[in-house]
Amino acid sequence: MTQDNLSHLRKFILMLARESGKILRTGYYKSKSITSKGDQGIVTDTDLRAESRLISLIHKRYPLHHILGEESGKVISKKSLDLHSNKKNPDASIDFRSDYLWIIDPLDGTTNFAHNYQQFCTSIALAYKEKVILGAVFNPITNELFFAEKGKGATVNGQKISVSKRKLKHALLCTGFAYKRDHWMHNNLSNIGAILARGAQGVRIDGTAALDLCYVACSKFDGFWESNLHSWDIAAGCLIVEEAGGKVTNDKGKPWHFNDGNIVASNKIVGKDILEIIK
What CATH number is associated with residue 219? Predict the structure, then answer.
């Protein structure tokens, strides 16, 4: 991949975040159509509209790239779709693999959005050969646009950000609960109590993993942990934490991958405390 390609991709991902943000902001101030997804939570008409727009823009600009979206699941490249639909080209042996995968959550924090609580965002990441290289997270209400490029640091609205240097006794942490209320919910209630008993100043539950990770990156939070997450929840935010000088692992303390469902992100200081408690 050339630097010229990266420059175009960098501009494109920021445009995508802002474009999706416009749809979220418009939908926020209107009446909402809300549908249950069972154990997977809820979806609004704004989720669907924003994801459809993102997929359309990516397919138009990069027809060979694949997409993984919260509402649509895995979407193969437009080129692959075109070949499949072309009766003159029915060859099933065509290699449809791509080194590029866009991982998109058009609206992270849908429950907050549905209740007019302003903690929600668009989260977009680009992986190249299984490694996340670009990430953007945008809250259109607060106008916070977080961005990171692998090896180049992290910013919010163009200003460099970094994680805190606070120890646990001065730390404000964050966690969350999956929509599916299973035994992990009860375990995490115990984890919260144990963290507070060990001396943390507080634990918050904001309902949007992507923004929680960004708040670790800019030192509003000192650490974050959650289980049963999806790639679209964490891919952009985890890169932003790392590029802000933080550390992200799975719940076993191993390096994270965007397919990991259980993660711990921190300022490199309180992560050990969190891992000791949740193991």
Answer: 3.40.190.80
Q: 30-57, pLDDT tens digit by residue? A: 999 999 876 667 899 999 999 999 999 9
Residues 229-256: tens digit of each pLDDT: 999 999 999 999 999 999 999 999 999 9
Residue 138 to residue 159: CA distance in whole angstroms: 14
Parent domain of 180: 168-278
Contact 16, 58 (CB under 8 A): yes
> Who's near 16: CB < 8 A, 6+ residues apart?
54, 57, 58, 104, 124, 136
- Cβ atoms 62, 100 nearer than 8 A: yes
- Whether residues 106 and 190 share a domain: the answer is no
Per the prediction, the chain carries an average pLDDT of 89
Count of domains observed in the chain: 2
